[in-house]
């Protein structure tokens, strides 16, 4: 199912510092990229999309649900993959970690097991199911983080710099997985080639949107601005 | 690295609650006992447990390695200021405790451990203790001990590269800052990753997107979600 996220007149302040200075956007494409230099407000923006952060003023609506009022319902629709997988893997063993997303659901054990197996196999993590999660490689950890999000069956997944901490080979692998996902994806990244096949790229600079277009024009504008 | 699931022994099969009780008892005993031969015996008995469970010597050593420098430091400090016997006593006591705790986690599934902790805490519900939350905290502790130990190693390596010696305070400060920053990320991740749990341990109705479709194989579920606006 396609998700529509509306961002209406959003400002985000941290004490006196204004990290986002008036954002108005409607996101309903299948693949959206977010770029911008460090400190431009990308992570702040990403965290608004599933209610991890509530805007200081303005509104964020996910399929009509206000993130300030319906946090849980919003997070069922919008999953989030953090930059550092080490901080979002919360169980000591791979399969236990993936199953965490099902916590609170009245599921028969067999079905729970089948769901865990399905996502682990999808990312080649099946052979590692009973391994301690801290012994996986960086790329495997990021895939485990993604598996732990996808098991909740979100309609949309937000990624905050999913490949920044990875070596080139693992970064390629994770980028390929993202490019091939069925779900709607919103990706904050510095990996510009990844965005070539996207539907839309939004450029942030100092808390404002300075370009919002198809990838080629938006990235050209970004590169020009950074010189 | 060998992992749970690939090895199995009668020790793996013991109920988690029994292992936790024995661990708590042994832990208390180790702290109370002050006799070097008894502690040395306890240390050897723990190694025997590892052998019985089929855990490799290498993996047993891996449990102690992150704390090795601390143990050496303790031994020297106690030895110089008190007595070498006391140094040996302290090191044996701590090593045995760590090995025993690691033994329980290596031979028990985390969900079984959590279930044991949760049911042990159920009587305390009336005092405002939420067993599901404590269970989660418990698994987080198990998960992040190796991560924090790794960070301690990284920081120490960086300090050594700059010619700084092993100073516990110089290590502790950056480690605490990093751990706190990590903790706030982890709290966000828990929120983001468990949209169906209120951490009360109670289970709600199954939402449509998880309902099994009658005409498909059991692994394939519907992704349609026609549920109305949910109240939270
Ligand atoms: N919790 C916070 N408290 C104070 N300042 C913050 C907080 N989060 C972000 N900021 C500030 O907001 C600005 C934008 O941060 P961020 O959204 O993380 O940027 P980006 O992800 O583009 O690098 C930065 O200057 C950062 O220091
Ligand atoms: Mg960021």
Structure description:
The complex is a heterodimer of chains A (227) and B (232). Chain A is globular, with a radius of gyration of 18 Å. In chain A, helix 6 (168-179) links the parallel strand 7 and strand 8 (184-188). Chain A has helices spanning 42-48, 71-77, 94-99, 109-122, 138-150, 168-179, 192-195, 215-225; strands at residues 5-14, 17-27, 31-36, 57-62, 65-66, 78-81, 156-160, 184-188, 200-205, 208-213. Helix content of chain A is 33%, strand content 27%. Chain B has two domains: 16-108, no CATH class; 135-224, no CATH class. Chain B starts with 9 loop residues before the first helix and ends in a 39-residue tail after the last helix. At the A-B interface, helix 2, helix 3 and helix 4 of A face helix 8 and helix 9 of B. The site of magnesium ion has 4 residues of chain A, from helix 1. Chain B: Residues 194-232 are annotated as: Disordered. Chain B: It is a multi-pass membrane protein. Chain B: One of its GO terms (cellular component) is plasma membrane.
What's the topology here?
The complex is a heterodimer of chains A (227) and B (232).
Chain A: E1 5-14, E2 17-27, E3 31-36, H1 42-48, E4 57-62, E5 65-66, H2 71-77, E6 78-81, H3 94-99, H4 109-122, H5 138-150, E7 156-160, H6 168-179, E8 184-188, H7 192-195, E9 200-205, E10 208-213, H8 215-225
Parallel strand pairs in A: 3-8, 3-9, 6-7, 7-8
Antiparallel strand pairs in A: 1-2, 1-4, 4-5, 9-10
Helix pairs in contact in A: 5-6
Chain B: H1 10-13, H2 16-32, H3 36-52, H4 57-64, H5 68-81, H6 84-107, H7 110-121, H8 131-161, H9 168-193
Helix pairs in contact in B: 2-6, 3-6, 5-6, 7-8, 8-9
Adenosine-5'-diphosphate is lined by residues 14, 17, 19, 36, 38-44 of chain A.
């Amino acid at each position: 199912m396609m998700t529509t996220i509306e961002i209406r007149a959003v400002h985000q302040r941290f004490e006196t510092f204004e990290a986002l200075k008036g954002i108005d956007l409607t996101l309903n494409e299948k693949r959206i990229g977010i770029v911008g230099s460090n400190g431009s407000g990308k992570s702040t923006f990403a965290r608004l999309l599933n209610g991890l952060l509530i805007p200081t003023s303005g509104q964020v609506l996910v399929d009509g649900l206000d993130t300030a009022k319906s946090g849980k319902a919003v997070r069922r629709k919008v999953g989030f993959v953090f930059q550092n997988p080490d901080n979002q893997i919360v169980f000591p063993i791979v399969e236990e970690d993936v199953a965490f997303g099902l916590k609170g659901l009245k599921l028969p054990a067999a079905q729970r097991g089948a769901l865990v197996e399905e996502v682990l196999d999808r990312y080649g993590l099946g052979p590692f199911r009973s391994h301690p999660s801290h012994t996986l490689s960086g790329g495997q950890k990021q895939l485990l983080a993604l598996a732990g999000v996808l098991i909740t069956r979100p309609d949309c997944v937000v990624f905050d710099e999913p490949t920044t901490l990875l070596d080139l080979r693992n970064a390629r692998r994770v980028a390929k997985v993202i490019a091939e996902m069925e779900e709607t994806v919103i990706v904050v990244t510095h990996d510009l080639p990844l965005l070539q096949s996207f539907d839309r790229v939004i450029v942030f600079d100092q808390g404002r949107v300075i370009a919002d277009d198809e990838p080629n024009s938006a990235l050209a504008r970004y590169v020009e601005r950074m010189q | 690295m060998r992992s749970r699931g690939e090895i199995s022994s009668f020790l793996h099969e013991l109920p988690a609650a029994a292992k936790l009780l024995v661990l708590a008892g042994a832990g208390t005993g180790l702290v109370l006992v002050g006799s070097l031969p008894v502690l040395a015996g306890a240390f050897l008995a723990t190694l025997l447990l590892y052998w019985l469970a089929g855990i490799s010597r290498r993996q047993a050593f891996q449990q102690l390695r992150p704390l090795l420098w601390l143990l050496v430091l303790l031994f020297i400090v106690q030895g110089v200021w008190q007595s070498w016997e006391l140094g040996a006593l302290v090191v044996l006591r701590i090593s045995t405790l760590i090995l025993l705790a690691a033994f329980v986690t290596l031979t028990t599934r985390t969900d079984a451990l959590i279930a044991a902790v949760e049911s042990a805490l159920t009587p305390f519900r009336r005092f405002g203790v939420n067993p599901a939350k404590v269970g989660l905290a418990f698994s987080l502790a198990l998960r992040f001990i190796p991560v924090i130990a790794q960070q301690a190693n990284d920081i120490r390596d960086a300090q050594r590269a700059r010619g700084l010696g092993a100073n516990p305070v110089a290590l502790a400060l950056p480690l605490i800052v990093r751990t706190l920053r990590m903790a706030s990320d982890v709290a966000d991740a828990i929120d983001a990753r468990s949209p169906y749990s209120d951490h009360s341990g109670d289970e709600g109705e199954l939402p449509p997107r998880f309902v099994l479709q009658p005409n498909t194989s059991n692994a394939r579920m519907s992704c349609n979600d026609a549920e109305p606006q949910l109240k939270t």
